[in-house]
Amino acid sequence: MPKIELDGTRLDEIWVRAIKLFPQNLEMRERYFAVERIRTEIADDAPRARVDVGTFTLRLLIEAPSLADMKILVSECTKQAMVAGDVLAALYVMDRFKIPEPSMNKAVFCAQEYAKKAKTYGDGTPLAISEAKIRQYWSKYRSVAHFWAASRLEESYPFVQQDQLFSRGHFQKFLEVSQDIYFFGCAFIPKRAKPQEPILKHGECWALPDEIQPKQLSSTKEPAHLMKYLQKYKAAKT
């Protein structure tokens, strides 16, 4: 995957969202970006007589799904990608709090336990509970799992208010946390993993620019729910 290019404008936020949702689908990334860019521009408080749109963007808008269909597609992608984020977030937290032998098996188990407890997504549809589904979503969204893990971690270890995660002034913090999780994933090798290789790989994930400084999780708040899930995991293996 290429390194993400950012230009310091508010369009960066839309572009990162497009990558998070459609990491493997160039056409949908570009269409989503085009639609959200224009929606942002016409929603400005300052009235405009016109919005300049190039022929390439205009073509993307014409070929894009309807807003209703786009909303459904984004919702489905979000549900699956959140699961990948939960898996990576669990590994990241296990490592940060020195929980013995963090592993993919444990992280998947914790994602399953969370799904059993939460039961449904915000729209009322059931969460993915099976190990096969969780691993499928991990594989599909591993290249952007560091972004989703940052979003999911923010719920337990807030660095900004959740509804401001992509707002001006807070986006930089989100990128910094994502960068730290990315560095962690590219260096972390589970003890019993076969083959012995990091859970994320440089060149296969969407990387942020080098100038984005990583922001490590710094908290003494123990992950009570995660530790509770892991106690059940140990009991199941004895």
Write the layout of secondary structure elements.
Layout: H1 11-21, H2 26-42, H3 55-63, H4 67-96, H5 104-118, H6 131-141, H7 145-156, H8 171-187, H9 224-237
Helix pairs in contact: 1-2, 2-3, 4-5, 4-6, 4-7, 5-9, 7-8
Please provide a written account of the structure.
The protein is 57% helix and 0% strand. The chain has a domain of 161 residues. The longest helix is centred in the middle third of the chain and has 30 residues. It is mostly helical and 238 residues long.
Would you kindly provide a brief summary of this structure?
Helix content is 57%, strand content 0%.
Key features of this structure:
single chain, 238 residues, mainly alpha, 9 helices
Instruction: List how many beta strands DSSP finds.
Output: 0
Low-confidence stretches: none
SSE order, one letter for each helix or strand: HHHHHHHHH
Kindly report how far apart the N and C termini lie.
41 Å
Secondary structure tally, helices: 9
Q: For the residues shown, what is the average pLDDT?
A: 85
| Biggest pleated-sheet summary | none
**Percent strand:** under 5%
Taking Cα atoms only, what radius of gyration do you get, to the nearest Å? 19 Å
- What's the quaternary structure here? single chain
